[in-house]
Write a sequence for this structure.
DNA sequence: TCTTGTGAACTGGTTCACAGCT
DNA sequence: AGCTGTGAACCAGTTCACAAGA
């Protein structure tokens, strides 16, 4: 036992690198496809191909979860699905609340594929009286003031912010106060939250601007200019 | 001249790191806010705060664009906006086509803040006859078969895929064939495209699964377990 | 013989800390 | 005196290449 005392870096308790965690759901999706095709086993090469990553990276990613492959053979599809799902917390269903019943909020409520991944939209909230009481994919829109009650009722830890940018910080403050500890932010705003709260941000406009940057470079012929310096 | 021949890494022609490019739009947003507040100048510290990054990172990011600050003073808000905007290709308006007029496609068409960032939704396409002809935020939904015509008509280089996962690869193939060179993919599918085409992927379900992972760890008390190994 | 699992090298990105300029 | 711009140290993540094992 004492042998390994200092040999391990700092991943003592299986803290998986962020980059790996973000890819696990992709692997899970690829495995679901393989399973649907009737495959019961697969190699790292096949799975990597289906997930669009390099095989070595895939193997390293999976190695963080444990050794669930068989050398010379590959991975058992069902076994691997089970272990990745467990690691991602899919043994339980996570009830989430969506704040903002505008176009994006509606799109999210209706998004299929949440259910199969352990995510359930438990409630949708809005401040606009015109929206309150309407039905979004089977969930009734409730007043934002119900936030605390909703969080309590469903034991909600994860919230989605789909409001205009101006409203986002106020909503985030209320979410934190209500006890939410993870926020997915679609509003074009930088949220200020305590360190104990995890925030992920998705900005549709930013994604397009990054693409515009690449187009711009392409258009001005920057691609093969690596030798310029030697001239 | 010969002095520098091999001293430079490979950024000869101002190829900005991907991570930096992804942050430039955030800086632009923060600068817009400062400008709206009547500020004409700002320090790296203030801007970094508003953008939610560390000041050294901000300065390094900006240094890739050139030296547009003044030592001892800071940055001129208007000047910096101009240069970041130019680098991101905002001197022109990018017409984009959205494929898929479902909930997400509708949300994207209606998304405000595209216009101010040089993005214009030129067309929305769908295969569903029930959707064709309907109006989405001022844009009429056209049949998917019009793709080539639309790309030609507007000179489109950037497309958004907002279809179900099963349809995504077929759509991507058609986009590439029509001459599109950048794709923003919202469909839960791994797109196979030629190397010359840039793809960015946003998967709503993945983002939530990553949050669920963090919640799961929190719940099982993994945070302060770094000493476990020494015991 | 085939494929996993993983040290080791490498690459890209972040942070530090200070020289250089105003 | 103050703030930018940037080399240098550092850290995370990726890829390589091969030993270990079915």
């Amino acid at each position: 036992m004492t042998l390994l005392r200092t040999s391990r870096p700092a991943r003592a308790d299986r803290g998986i690198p962020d980059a790996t965690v973000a890819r696990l759901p992709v692997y899970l999706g690829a495995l679901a496809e393989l399973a649907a095709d009737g495959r019961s086993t697969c190699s790292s090469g096949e799975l990597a191909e289906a997930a669009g990553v390099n095989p070595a990276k895939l193997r390293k990613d999976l190695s963080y979860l444990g050794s669930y492959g068989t050398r010379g053979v590959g991975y058992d599809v069902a076994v691997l699905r089970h272990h990745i799902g467990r690691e991602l917390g899919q043994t339980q269903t996570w009830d989430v609340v969506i704040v903002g019943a505008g176009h994006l909020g509606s799109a999210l409520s209706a998004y299929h594929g949440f259910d199969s991944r352990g995510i359930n939209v438990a409630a949708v909230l809005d401040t606009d009286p015109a929206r309150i009481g309407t039905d979004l994919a089977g969930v009734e829109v409730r007043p934002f003031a119900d936030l605390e009650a909703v969080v309590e009722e469903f034991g909600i830890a994860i919230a989605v912010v789909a409001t205009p940018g101006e409203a986002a910080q106020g909503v985030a403050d209320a979410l934190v106060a209500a006890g939410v500890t993870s926020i997915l932010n679609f509003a074009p705003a930088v949220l200020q939250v305590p360190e104990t709260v995890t925030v992920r941000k998705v900005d549709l406009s930013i994604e397009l601007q990054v693409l515009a940057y690449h187009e711009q470079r392409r258009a001005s012929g920057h691609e093969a200019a690596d030798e310029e310096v030697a001239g």
User: Anything to note?
Assistant: The two ends of chain A are 59 Å apart (CA to CA). The beta strands of chain A are 41-42, 69-70, 74-76, 94-99, 119-126, 135-136, 139-143, 158-161, 182-185, 198-201. Helices of chain A lie at 18-36, 44-51, 55-63, 77-87, 103-110, 147-154, 165-178, 204-219.
